[in-house]
# Entry
Amino acid sequence: MGKLADKTMVIGLGSPIMCDDAVGLKVSEAIEAMNLPDVDTLQEAIGGLDIIPMISGYRFAIIVDAIQTREYEPGTVLIFDPESFDCTIADVPAHDVNLATAIKIGRQMDNSVMPEVIKFIAIEVEDLQTMSEEMTPKVAASVEPAKNAVLHLLSELRGRSRSC
# Structure
């Protein structure tokens, strides 16, 4: 088995110019500003298979992104495991691969470099269509609670790290 760095990668996904889609980026930036010694951060406008090299080699990964289900109030912070998305895994062209499928492919390619634990923090958003560098008020207000959700997961993962 490959040696994983005893660190966590926090990746914020989204677009800084598509209104609420920037929320994952803002949460990752907030974590980055804390300068946590065992945490690396990225802000990326990627998806699909591009996520694999960014989380490879880390013991843990937390992916923060916007989600629009219309089942929750905008600004609601949700935490998922990759298994929550198993029903979305599909055989599709490489450019259409969603994150759940990409993680499955990464584990099949070389599970020894994939994180032991991957968590998703999703923030229910209101507007993914408007070109704007400003988020809607409810989603902008969710950055702090989403940052706290990341910190909670980091605490759990650190506890797991010490107990192994």
About this structure: The chain has one domain: 5-163. Confidence is low (pLDDT under 50) at residues 87-95.
